[in-house]
């Protein structure tokens, strides 16, 4: 870890009035989810919980909190449960970012005051627990489970512990995954494996995607998929009530509740499923990518696992892969497949190493892109064209749902060359996915929903936008082509997008909006 990162970490945790052992951070990076992780946590221990919220009429919580099964002390990693840090008012509404929650979690950037605090995070997590209890309505004999994972951001540990306290306060069990990907978190609501306490009833991913190091946020899942805008609004309204009650009554007046926090390496389950998917596509060959040279660029986010735990078991050579170590300061480039510097970095890695294919992920691995052996990018319209070609081979005539900014050349390619139907819809990955689900519900078959940003979701994968699974579909094509003798190397992929008419110039402008400007009259409605 760099000296800059350590200094920033020191400042962050000193600001929260909590002692921190620097050696723990280095160890954490090495052993992100080891079974004995609890031994790596600071010695400071607290029993943390929110009081029952009478103002929200949450009387139904009592029957869950009366259950004493497997209750233990909650180990708080970054903030003491008895912290006397003064509470500040929080406008939770401003934390909503569509179907996500995002805010500033680290001080130090001018003009960006912290608005995602540890106490605010506890309130949000407790609110999600309330929301989940209302929808699941379990009987008193069953405790709901919530899994928590995070990307490589420097505020991740502190927020993970704050989330754990908020969930535990409602009498729900907490399953911590440590460093994880967003798609894995959703998968944990579907996996049936009691050894890993799966399936969980709800899941929280702590991430702010490709945003700068000082930001962080949350994505929420149930087995029905990611929560929508209305759900997030509901949770933030509940969080406001919880936080306001604590603000009035005081931090020290919170009721203390013990609850169990378990730690498992769920990423091993998730990556095993990805490996099995490629082997199935290659007629169950053990190492279908043997001899292929594939480099990975994780941008120091959470995607470094892909080289060692997915590609190498399949026989691929991964030398030349770069920025696999998690570093929340993102010292090399923004982990964002839309970023020109990021794409230049993976392209150069492919050419320098004479690799067959390059793969790049965003911070939390729900987006991805690729580069062929000549340095040509599979990104934006080209990635959509490639995925459309693969899906339409499997499902002829199906509808491909994309966001509205795709090119006319892509429409011609999908409809005239591939024989599919191109359905444009409004921007936003959740909008695109929900539209594909809606089309299926009214009888129009759709198997792919994909945005130019790199969010791609397939019907076969529970409509989850999974950057790793998108790349698995490319690997499947490589492996199956070799097994059938119809082609070798990334030219198999390049051939699939031949005939795509690409715009000579494509520029996207994103303007920062001052939500406090008088003309917005109460805020910008995203």
UniProtKB/TrEMBL annotation:
GO terms for biological process: glucose metabolic process. GO terms for cellular component: chloroplast stroma. InterPro entries: A-D-PHexomutase_a/b/a-I, A-D-PHexomutase_a/b/a-I/II/III, A-D-PHexomutase_a/b/a-II, A-D-PHexomutase_a/b/a-III, Alpha-D-phosphohexomutase_SF, Phosphoglucosamine_mutase. Its EC number is 5.4.2.2. It comes from the Eukaryota. Belongs to the phosphohexose mutase family. This is phosphoglucomutase (alpha-D-glucose-1,6-bisphosphate-dependent). It comes from Aquilegia coerulea (Rocky mountain columbine).
């Amino acid at each position: 870890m760099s000296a800059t990162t350590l200094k920033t970490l020191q400042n962050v945790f000193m600001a929260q009035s909590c002692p921190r052992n620097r050696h723990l951070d280095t160890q954490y990076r090495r052993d992100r989810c080891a079974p004995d992780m609890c031994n790596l946590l600071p010695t400071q221990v607290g029993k943390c919980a929110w009081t029952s919220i009478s103002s929200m009429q949450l009387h139904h919580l009592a029957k869950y909190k009366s259950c004493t099964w497997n209750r233990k002390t909650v180990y708080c990693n970054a903030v003491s449960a008895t912290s006397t840090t003064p509470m500040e008012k929080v406008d939770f509404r401003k934390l909503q970012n569509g179907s996500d929650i995002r805010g500033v979690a680290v001080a130090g950037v001018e003009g960006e005051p912290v608005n995602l605090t540890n106490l605010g995070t506890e309130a949000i997590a407790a609110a999600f627990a309330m929301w989940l209890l209302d929808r699941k309505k379990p009987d008193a004999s069953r405790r709901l489970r919530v899994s928590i994972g995070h990307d490589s951001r420097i505020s991740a540990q502190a927020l993970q512990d704050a989330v754990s306290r908020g969930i535990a306060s409602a009498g729900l069990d907490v399953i911590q995954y440590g460093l994880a990907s967003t798609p894995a978190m959703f998968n944990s609501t579907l996996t049936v494996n009691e050894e890993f306490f799966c399936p969980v009833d709800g899941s929280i991913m702590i991430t702010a995607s490709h945003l700068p190091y000082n930001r962080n946020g949350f994505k929420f899942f149930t087995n029905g998929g990611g929560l929508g805008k209305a759900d997030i609004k509901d949770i933030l309204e509940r969080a406001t009530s919880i936080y306001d009650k604590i603000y009035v009554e005081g931090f020290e007046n919170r009721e203390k509740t013990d609850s169990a926090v378990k730690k498992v390496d769920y990423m091993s389950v998730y990556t095993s499923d990805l490996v099995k998917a490629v082997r199935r596509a290659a007629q169950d060959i053990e190492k279908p990518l043997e001899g292929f040279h594939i480099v990975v660029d994780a941008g120091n986010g959470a995607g470094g696992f892909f080289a060692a735990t997915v590609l190498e078991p399949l026989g691929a050579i991964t030398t030349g892969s770069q920025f696999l170590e998690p570093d929340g300061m993102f010292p090399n480039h923004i982990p964002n497949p839309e970023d020109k510097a990021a794409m230049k970095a993976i392209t150069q890695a492919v050419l320098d190493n004479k690799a067959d294919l390059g793969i790049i992920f965003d911070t939390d691995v729900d987006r991805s892109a690729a580069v062929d052996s000549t340095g040509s990018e599979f990104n934006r319209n080209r990635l959509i064209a490639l995925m459309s070609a693969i899906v339409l081979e499997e499902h002829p005539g199906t509808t491909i749902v994309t966001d509205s900014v795709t090119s006319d050349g892509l429409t011609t390619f999908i409809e005239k060359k591939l024989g599919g139907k191109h359905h444009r819809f409004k921007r936003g990955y959740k909008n695109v996915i929900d539209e594909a689900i809606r089309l299926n519900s009214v009888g129009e078959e759709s198997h792919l929903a994909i945005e130019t940003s790199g969010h791609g979701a397939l019907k076969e994968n529970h409509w989850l936008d999974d950057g790793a699974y998108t790349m698995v579909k490319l690997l499947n094509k490589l492996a199956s082509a070799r097994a059938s003798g119809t082609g070798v190397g990334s030219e198999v992929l390049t051939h699939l997008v031949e005939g795509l008419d690409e715009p000579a110039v494509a520029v996207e402008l994103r303007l920062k909006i001052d939500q406090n400007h008088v003309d917005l009259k109460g805020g910008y409605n995203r």
